[in-house]
Design a protein that fits this description.
Blueprint: H1 4-21, E1 35-36, E2 61-62, E3 72-78, H2 85-92, E4 98-106, E5 112-113, H3 116-128, E6 135-145, E7 150-151, H4 155-162, H5 165-181, E8 186-190, H6 198-217, E9 221-226, E10 242-246, H7 263-273, E11 279-285, E12 287-292, E13 297-300, H8 302-311, E14 317-318, E15 325-330, E16 336-342, H9 344-356, E17 361-365
Parallel strand pairs: 3-4, 3-17, 4-6, 6-8, 8-9, 9-10, 10-11, 11-17
Antiparallel strand pairs: 1-2, 4-5, 6-7, 12-13, 12-16, 14-15, 15-16
Amino acid sequence: MSTDSDNGEIYLKKRLIISFLVLILFICGCAHGDDQEQDPVDVHVIKDPVSETVKMETTSGSEHMNDVNGKSVGAWITYWDLDTAYDELDLLKDDLDTLCYFAAYFDNNSEPFIPEGTLGTMDKLKQDGSFSNTVNYLTFVNDKLLPQGSSLKDTELLYDLIGNEKKAKKHAEQITDMTVSAGCNGIEIDYEAIKKDYELWEHFRDFLNILVPMAHEKGLSVRVLFEPGAPIEKYEWPKDVEYVMMCYNLYGYGTKPGPKADKEFLKEMVTKMETLPGTINFALATGGFDFAQDGSVAQIDTKTAKAVAMRYDAMEHTDEASGDHVYTYTDEDGMSHEVWYADQDTIRLWIQTIKDEGHERITIWRIGGNI
């Protein structure tokens, strides 16, 4: 039996979630496609230690959503950080129109697989039924599982997958079939670290020209993520796609201390994305980084950043250029740290900056760790 104290604690917890996430809801809108029946296909699963075996039912896809008019708010959800994710999603279930499951990877033979943790997250939300009217994307990343360890943002893997027309067609068929079988109605491509490999960029563009019509024939939306340094202006891209710019990690690993984004950086990304023919979307990241004196850098979520500041009685200030919260502390080993992180006020400023530039489609990286 719950007590008044318990109820008060639950209420306060929910208000904390709302204070961080619901600020984005004023820019959202809803529009959903009709279901189209698909033949079932197998899902290739590699067991991971995060969850027990999960059986996924085959469901139909939905008509692609890339020509949606109006506003949009989306978010990514990861299977490895779910402590507060379901609470946050529960509060937002009537307002999110896009949910991205992060992520599907590749095995040692360059075959795509969905970790059981990701499948478990899908299964839980599917049983709940709260997101049946949401565009649910399965995110594919170019990370490769090796016999020992893994290779992250592997561009050699991309040559294996899309290095010529035959490979690209096979890859497109595999991931569209896998997405339908997993019960999602959208494919999200997050292939990173291509940098200045212009040959690979050409293969990537050609791959999208194959993937997009194939996905749409199966009732699937397509989203494509770009890093800030992507040479998108050098190529012609498919029109019926939602393109997402990762507006974060302006500072982070290998840099001096600073924010994930600031106002000028966001304006530059808006200008860059306006060269694209499709719908454009801007990804904003919660949390931040802890920069240590020895040069090491660690990601830190909003909840932890606030807790660390309280633990060390750190004096915070707000950076005017970015809206980030900043503080320093010295740990038990005498190591000094400088922390930069975004909270609800920071995200509100970033959203307003993008709105002032004439755009309203936003995706948040990520659900979880915001309270």
